[in-house]
DNA sequence: ATGTCTTTGTGAACGCGTGCACAAAGATGG
DNA sequence: CCATCTTTGTGCACGCGTTCACAAAGACAT
């Protein structure tokens, strides 16, 4: 997962463990898909399968929210969608600013999943004066000078940083000073923030390196002496995969696009 | 962090805990920055600060790799860079394919951090026939029909999925069947893969929802009765932040750009 | 050579998260 | 109203990851 929380040791927020909070959006997505298919109830077993988790874990997760299920029947889909949405704070609108409108920033701005989940792009901010006024995803880019003004007048509490690494900390400091208390960081840097501010980072490079580690391990496992790796292991994987691929008919839950509008 | 591993319970890969593996890229980045500044050695304390972790944790992490430090002195930067690179499998080149060249796919293709870390974009693949042949980031986009051929002839073992959610599982199945054993998934779907295949997901929507949860909690904490939240809490945060911002002079480690070339 | 001072490497304790397995709850049918 | 069957909610145990705290190792000065 390209995610990684930063500071803030635990989160007994109200007894809800951090690990559970991280899974709630997953459940919500699966439930939304069921809701769209007008499915009235689901068992923990079914929902767990859809979300790709253990059913016992799911039940325990829900138990932190309260007893919303009916024994012998399962969970009411609509009710659960509401409860989770409320718990995650998605019943209100969250204005978000994106700083750094490069390729990634623009891609994020175009992300359709924002509005559908209660997030609204309040502003796009870039340091390049040439970008100012240019429309991206239907919103005019504003210059960094306006940052504080934008944050304060819109009551923005969530900021997305998509700048180069060199500018990230500075942007972060300005966001925080202006009142932002949650930051999603796409820049490959460790951000330092005061207590009370949450930072989550998304780092492509780190994700790839973790995959490379496991990939190397797999290759080395079945090729004892050093030779051309990633070949002997491959044949076996392909065989196992062919069968799995053939059995894969289930279609994607919803028509959602990834973190960005694909062509 | 916007990351999340999927199956594969533990990873005693060779005794190296999964949590440690996930931090190695972080250390590597900090070390690379030190190396560029020609710093010969670092103490665990200094390096830990740069990587944003606890120094005891860092030492324990390194202890899994072997005893590469010198008591009373610290760690040799160059040597450590080499050891971590080797452990992560970055001494070899990893060809990568990106499937789904929409806004995000294109942004990823433009990501400069690929090559610098041992990853090479072997091909860009999209289902839209109109995209075929069109150059993105200097590479001609190829049609999905070529997928199996590309994977096999280039020996690709890592695939990046940036398609809409509806197409993700199908693309995943084809990648796996063709020999890919590591997948980085940007589509908002749970992917089902056979054993032996690693999946990591990056999900903007989930990250934002997690932030929203904490944001809501912060707002509710200091505003007992329901009213206009996220306002009283803000003032305190701003005050605390101003001081922190003023004390922030350290410049970004390297000139790396985020998951994409910014304008 | 010896003593001091710094910094590593790790034993041990603790806490969180996971998964098993089962009792309790409630629906459903007779 | 009772029996049966399904599915939830959770007590418990286990394992991983984190952190503390300190002994051992080595550099460095005298």
TrEMBL record, chains A, B:
Residue ranges of every copy of the CoA-binding domain listed in the record: 89-190
TM ranges: none
Location of the protein in the cell: Cytoplasm
Matching SUPFAM superfamilies: NAD(P)-binding Rossmann-fold domains, Winged helix' DNA-binding domain
Gene3D superfamilies per the UniProt record, alphabetical: NAD(P)-binding Rossmann-like Domain, Winged helix-like DNA-binding domain superfamily/Winged helix DNA-binding domain
Family matches, as InterPro entries: CoA-bd, NAD(P)-bd_dom_sf, Rex_actinobacterial-type, Rex_DNA-bd_C_dom, Tscrpt_rep_Rex, WH-like_DNA-bd_sf, WH_DNA-bd_sf
SMART domains: CoA_binding
Binding residues for NAD(+): 100-105
Keyword annotations from UniProtKB, A to Z: Cytoplasm, DNA-binding, NAD, Repressor, Transcription, Transcription regulation
DNA-binding region(s) from the entry: 26-65
Family the UniProt entry places it in: Belongs to the transcriptional regulatory Rex family.
Quaternary structure annotation from Swiss-Prot or TrEMBL: Homodimer.
Function field: Modulates transcription in response to changes in cellular NADH/NAD(+) redox state.
UniProt protein name: Redox-sensing transcriptional repressor Rex
Organism of this sequence: Streptomyces siderophoricus
Gene behind this protein: rex
């Amino acid at each position: 997962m390209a995610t990684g929380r930063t500071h803030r040791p635990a989160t007994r927020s109200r007894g809800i463990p951090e690990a559970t909070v991280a899974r709630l959006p997953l459940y919500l997505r699966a439930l939304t898909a069921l809701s769209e298919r007008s499915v009235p109830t689901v068992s923990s077993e079914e929902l767990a399968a859809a979300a790709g988790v253990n059913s016992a874990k799911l039940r325990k997760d829900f138990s932190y929210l309260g007893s919303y299920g009916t024994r012998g029947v399962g969970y009411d889909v609509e009710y659960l969608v509401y409860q989770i949405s409320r718990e995650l704070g998605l019943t209100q609108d969250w204005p978000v600013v994106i700083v750094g409108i490069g390729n990634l920033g623009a891609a994020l701005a175009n992300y359709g999943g924002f509005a559908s989940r209660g997030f609204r792009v309040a502003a796009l901010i870039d340091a390049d004066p040439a970008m100012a006024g240019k429309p991206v995803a239907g919103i005019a880019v504003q210059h960094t000078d306006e940052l504080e003004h934008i944050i304060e007048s819109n009551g923005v509490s969530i900021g997305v940083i998509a700048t180069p690494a060199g500018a990230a900390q500075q942007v972060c400091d300005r966001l925080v000073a202006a009142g932002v208390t949650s930051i999603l960081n796409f820049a490959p840097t460790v951000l330092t923030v005061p207590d009370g501010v949450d930072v989550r980072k998304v780092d492509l490079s780190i994700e790839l390196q973790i995959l490379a580690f496991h990939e190397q391990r797999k290759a080395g496992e079945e090729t004892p002496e050093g030779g051309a790796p990633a070949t002997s292991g491959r044949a076996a994987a392909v065989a196992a995969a062919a069968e799995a691929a053939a059995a894969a008919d289930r279609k994607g839950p919803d028509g959602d696009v990834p973190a960005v509008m694909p062509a």
